[in-house]
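ping. complex inputs:
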Amino acid sequence: MAAAKRIALSERQLSLIARALADPRRYEILQKIGSSNSVCACGDIRDCLPITPATLSHHMKELENAGLIEAKRSGKFVNYTLRRDVLQAYLDRLARI
Amino acid sequence: MAAAKRIALSERQLSLIARALADPRRYEILQKIGSSNSVCACGDIRDCLPITPATLSHHMKELENAGLIEAKRSGKFVNYTLRRDVLQAYLDRLARI
DNA sequence: TCATCAATTAGATACTTGTCGAAATATCGA
DNA sequence: TCGATATTTCGACAAGTATCTAATTGATGA
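pong. complex structure:
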């Protein structure tokens, strides 16, 4: 079995994830985080997108709030990792439609 | 192979689908359409959701515009079917993150 | 300690959108 | 043709949100 632990999403989280994915910029951000094997700092993302730090911070909060990413502070920086298990849970849910 | 024909989604359609799925009511509608083996009329959906015909019409247009459902007029009624191929294409795309 | 850089928060604004009521359109049966 | 039923369109409004600038907090190194 590929997924040892299936995550069950509440209706609320389901909705948060769907809305988080609805913004093209957040989709790009997720791709960026997902494509980097290691962690990904805010600055890395800002280098790719023409947005202000404030706007980026807002988007990151949305993604984190949805459970799609995990933030970990490291000194001045904040590193993000993609929660593939949560994303997979969302896909599983959609596939059940 | 399960999917004989892979559908490639444009960035635009990707965004339309994501936004269409972002509304909980539209998610419910999709479930309703998907769960009915045969076609599904507007009235069937209205019986499940406390919304006015105008609002429902609006949602159906969004879903159709995103390519997630197909509408076919049959006399007074309009019947909808879920485009599972499009939904699958969306899932494939998200899984690639 | 202070200057600097990273990130967040606060407040404001413009745009999007979910919703409704009312009017219009479409189709069917009598 | 007329009336009834199904769906759509129009116009409006309220709520949500993506974005910015400016100010703030947090952490590092000189």
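Residues 20 and 78 of chain A are 20 Å apart (CA to CA).
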